[in-house]
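At this stage, I put together a protein sequence along with its fold in token form, as given directly below:
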Amino acid sequence: MQIIKSSLFQKFPDIIFGLSTKIGLNRTEPFFFNMSLTVGDDPVIVRANREALYNELGLTTDQIAIQKQIHSDIVTIVDEPGLIGESDAMITARKGIGLAISTADCTPIFIYDRKNEIIAAVHSGWRGSEKQILRKTILVLLEQFNCSPNDMFVYIGPSICQKNYEVGDEVAKHFHRIYLKKIDNKFYLDILGVNKDELINFGIQESNIEISSLCSYEEKYLQSYRRDGKNSGRALGVIAMKEK
């Protein structure tokens, strides 16, 4: 099994983190090591894939909170594991609960407040970014959990890079021109830049932000809807705080 780790989070012994790839349990095409129940894969296989990933991280299915992602600006505070309904960001202060984000080109963002011992997980595609899902998540952390940007550590996982993220005028119009390149009358969106700047604007130190250099579209061992279409599976990124 190949799992992507965060060198930033590995500095914190109490943090569990990993993000799946297409490689695991010798699964083969079209979906490979898929974590989604909604792409046409065998549900029995998907549940086995999920359990294998969770076990590799030292967790079980019964410890995972997972949301139905709808490209919204809904932020859910999680107190119990399980399916939490429609949402695109989760926050918990509970140890032993893993927050799972599904991704296949969209930007997965994971936050740890070391002082208050709070974690958050955010799914931010272009719709979520346009609705400022990351900004709204941080506002909840600040206003409801008394967090400070100085105590936040953030990992932005693999997502589609700008040179491969062609968007139409109907998408480009929602973003400032600094996040767009126009080549041969085609727009290319820097979704990573949008989210990174959101963090910087809140005062989160750049040294406390790790951004994956992996492009989900280019790396064949990563799930990519833009590249593989209906044959694309989904990855899961999971963050949790260890129970003491």
The two ends are 27 Å apart (CA to CA). The domain at 3-160+208-241 is CATH 3.60.140.10 (CNF1/YfiH-like putative cysteine hydrolases). The chain has a mean pLDDT of 97. The chain has six helices and 15 strands.
